[in-house]
Amino acid sequence: QLPIGRRGANAHMAAGHAVTLIDLRKTPLPAFDDSQIYADQNLHYLNEVIRKVDGVTLAVPVYNWAVGSAAIEATGSNIARLGLRSPWSDKVVTCLVAGGVLQSYTAHMSLASSLMLDFKCVNPYHVFAASADWNGDNLSESALERLEKTLQVAIQFSAALRGCTYGSKWEI
Q1: C-alpha pair distances (Å), 154 with each of 108, 148, 161
Q2: Interatomic CA distance for residues 168 and 157, integer angstroms
Q3: Residues 6+ apart with CB under 8 A from 16
Q4: How do residues 69-126 score in pLDDT, each as one tens digit?
Q5: The pTM is what?
Q6: 121 contacts 154 by C-beta, under 8 angstroms
């Protein structure tokens, strides 16, 4: 079960939202090599899931003042084979970021700006949780409130964009 905010995944599903959890520890991608990776079944699965959803929530840790982007690079780099349209194109992408210190709250911005510029993603809100926001595996009350608000904004943006008739592709 995916704990999405206070209400949890079941409440979001009951409200008509489908929730798919992909854990890259359980669905690993091979090292990115621009030739062999495109034959990987996990990459095909990831591409299909991203293509079908209205919005994506990325839960990422901060390491050395940055976040990993292997999954985005692998799924987004196939645009030449897909007619310059990525599975990420025009998605609402929300970042849930965990870091040790408050000063790294913008560590995900290079990833967020790449999603925005390359794939025309919308990143309305993000949640940053530092060490002080955690009590073991549990988030603090204020972090839970920020998480719930952020997810509600993502749901509203996704619903608003669902009916759009445009389709973006990679362009400068």
Answers
A1: 17, 10, 11
A2: 17
A3: none
A4: 877 888 887 666 666 788 899 999 999 999 999 899 999 999 999 899 988 999 889 9
A5: 0.83
A6: no
- How many Å apart are CA 13 and CA 35, to the nearest integer? 38
Token match 């994506």: residue?
Answer: 56
Q: What is the residue whose two structure tokens read 């990525």?
A: 86
DSSP designation for 5: T
Output the furthest CA–CA distance in the chain (Å, rounded).
46
Residue 63's nearest CA partner among 91, 94, 100 is 100
**CA 122 to CA 167: how far, in whole Å?**
14
H helices of 24-140, in order, are 41-52, 70-76, 109-119
- Identify the CA nearest to 75 among candidates 91, 60, 59, 63: 91
Find all residues with CB under 8 Å of 12, minimum gap 6, and list them: 4, 5, 19, 151, 155
Residue in the structure block whose two tokens are 């390491």: 63
Tokens of 21: 């959890």
How far from chain centre, in Å, is Cα 25? 15
Total length of the chain: 172
pLDDT of 128 reads 94
